[in-house]
Write a structure and sequence with these properties.
Two copies of one chain form a homodimer.
Chain A: H1 4-9, E1 11-16, H2 25-32, E2 39-46, E3 50-51, E4 54-63, H3 65-82, E5 87-93, E6 95-98, E7 102-110, H4 113-130, E8 133-139, E9 142-145, H5 149-155, H6 163-168
Parallel strand pairs in A: 1-5
Antiparallel strand pairs in A: 2-7, 3-4, 4-6, 4-8, 5-7, 8-9
Chain lengths: 185, 185
């Protein structure tokens, strides 16, 4: 098991501020490549051109960067605690992301493939469910803050909110203030 | 559901003959990128520098290419039948593969991430278990054909072979003639 310091050196966490530059996915893959490893698994989340029949022009992501970065780091640490990973990179882009471009990228390397594959899936699932980044879908005829159902499922359980609250506060951006450290990793 | 012809156009299967060129993984990722998709999952199998404490210099892969390509195509078709994939690429390199380099690469794209992630894992598992490609490990002090336990588990079940047969025919290369079309997909 790597020490905390070693693990930190072998983990790359980035919230990439709004710009026109695409995520440099090759750099993340290069970061996790390691002669001790036999496996690299990656996941790339891209903007797709339609949502529920509407034509999507671009997505726009917003976050309070220090909070998003901290939570993304916690997700990576949780992945390391569960699987035997050598190197791990996770990045999320903010701002406008055009159709076909990457908004989020995860890369994991390990000696045996089961660890990299499982960790990669875990990290993207946890990003969706627990990293406070908000998404607006921009259509050719309007725009809308997008509900992230996975995030809501995690943070608005029936035990703490009523159906009425969930209905009236259903949008992603309505819950910005609800993000705090009580999340489980 | 895509027609068989559409699926074929959106599936790339390659057995790359022995050369000094690395697998062009960026080309496979570009092949699966699609504006209709929100997810790209990849898996890269690389040569690692040690095996059971021995220092590995390189791996060497051999195959009867038409048979390996056909089986790889069947694996991709099986993945398409199980998950909603848009595009799929699977490639295996033959010949010498140095430490840190890729011998096998899988890329899958889909509208929702669960399909690409699951299919990517399925394809690499099936490649290991059913595509007839043989691996020799070259150490700094010798070389050895490598048993592929997953392949043997699939093709030498207790119902058809005895323990003695498995012991005496345990090497990958000893089973070349055993590959045939009776495999299940």
């Amino acid at each position: 098991m790597a020490t905390a310091e070693e693990a930190e050196k072998k983990t790359l966490v980035e919230i990439v501020e709004a710009s026109c530059e695409p995520l440099d996915t090759a750099r993340y893959v290069a970061f996790v490549r390691d002669p001790a490893c036999g496996a690299i698994a990656t996941f790339e989340g891209t903007t797709r051109d339609t949502f529920e029949g509407r034509s999507v022009v671009e997505l726009r992501y917003e976050a309070y960067t220090p909070m998003a970065r901290r939570r993304l780091g916690e997700v990576c640490a949780a992945a390391r605690s569960r699987w035997a990973l050598e190197r791990l990179a996770a990045a999320h882009r903010l701002g406008r992301v055009g159709v076909g471009e990457a908004s989020v990228f995860v890369a994991a390397s390990s000696v045996h493939r089961v660890d990299a594959l499982a960790a990669c899936e875990f990290v993207i699932d946890e990003i969706k469910a627990s990293v406070p980044i908000w998404k607006k879908e921009v259509y050719d005829n309007g725009e809308m803050w997008k509900e992230n159902r996975e995030f809501l499922d995690r943070h608005l359980s029936p035990a703490t909110t009523t159906t009425t609250e969930r209905t009236t506060k259903g949008g992603c951006c309505a819950h910005k203030e609800k993000i705090s450290d009580e999340r489980s990793t």
